[in-house]
Amino acid sequence: MKKILILIAAVIITSCSDNLESLNQNIKDPSEVPGESLFTGAQKNLVDQMVDLNVNNNNTKLWSQFLQETTYTDESNYDQVGRNIPGTHWSVLYKDVLKDLDEAGKVIAATTYPLAADAELTPNKLQVIEILKVYTYSILVETFGDVPYTESLDIENLLPKYDDGLTVYKDLVARLTAAINALDTSKGSFGSADNIYGGDVASWKKFAASLKLRMGILLSDVDNAFAKSTVESAVTSGVFTSNADNANFKYLSADPNTHPVHANLVLSGRHDFVAAETIVNMMNTLNDPRRALYFLEVPGGGYVGGEIGATSNYSSHSHVSAQVEAAQAPGVILDYSEVEFLLAEASARTFNVGGSAKGHYDTAIEASIINWGGTAADAATYLAEPSVDYNLALASSTAATPWKEVIGNQKWISLFNRGFEAWTSIRLLDFPFMITPADALSGYPNKYTYPVVEQTLNGANYSAAVSAIGTDTAEQKLFWDKN
């Protein structure tokens, strides 16, 4: 009997020990995350950051003066510090996008897929990841200037050095060219794990070429010869040719997978933003047919924008339209209208891209109007406006470089709700003029200041970067912003 009791006790002790050890196991999370899942998450984090309106994350729609805050006006007055906006942008792009994309590539490259049909998709998947990494790095350079690059994804190095912005940008162009050449359009890639193109490789190739076009144009004032060869090479590779090519991230109807602007304006229940006077006044002057597609009329009729940097009563100013704040509005990171404006810029700079500056300009405006829900007839009427007609507007411009004003104004209107790219276009072309905010804390922001955490934890490398670019102030122009 005594032996039996001892045996039972031993079994219980062993069983309890096994159960206690199992309590330390996380049964809800897999021990290894598939590379495809990491890619999907990184893609969403990237687009969310680019299209967000939350003032903690992204202020470029305010700096592009598309929208104005109603009550709390700090960000409209160029406050970058109160909410650690640069730090959030830096963290999201490095940690939640680049690091996850890098890990996705490593996992996918190391995965042995049972089916040959799945295994043959690996090379294309790795190139799509590369293209999004290039896009993300390009945004960081366009935002900050010199940034960590060669040492940025080494988790063992907590104090990465900053690399020269122009050197990084040119290397990114080379990487993009290699990715374009490596894509195999006869095969697929991520399929449904890709919420932009559904894994369609031909579409990713067009996106990469169009991104290369954009990056080439950005360098036009700092290295014209390199810009010219980059732009012409991109066009040869095949850029966007219709709105069907647009890089639109597909959001869903239910939280947390709605468009961030829907969360900001609808799900929040807050009334923090109205249309800004800068864009509304220009569209009113031009009788732009997109007014009703971008904004709602005020009670009594008409479109009224809020004063830049000042409090703006919500009920007496125009709000964004239903399609702008829709849950399933597309998350746009590059579109056909923008590509045609870039081609117009290239033609004005005498790059060999085919067509004329006027032809590409007209096509860009028509593509924007149609993409927002207007018609070809709307576009024709608008293009006949003396202040819109390319040749007439060019002749009446008093700008030092008239085409920059004509293209810059219309490109900016077409980039509505795309704050980052509009902000970049304003800095590159110097048009349209932004109104000085009521209580501006700085001059117009030409860069994000570096995150406070970099100043405190990575001080030596931070100081070297600041010395290289000039100053760590909002007004400091970056290497590509020469004129």
From TrEMBL:
The keyword Lipoprotein applies. PROSITE patterns: PROKAR_LIPOPROTEIN. It comes from the Bacteria. Keywords: Lipoprotein. This is SusD/RagB family nutrient-binding outer membrane lipoprotein.
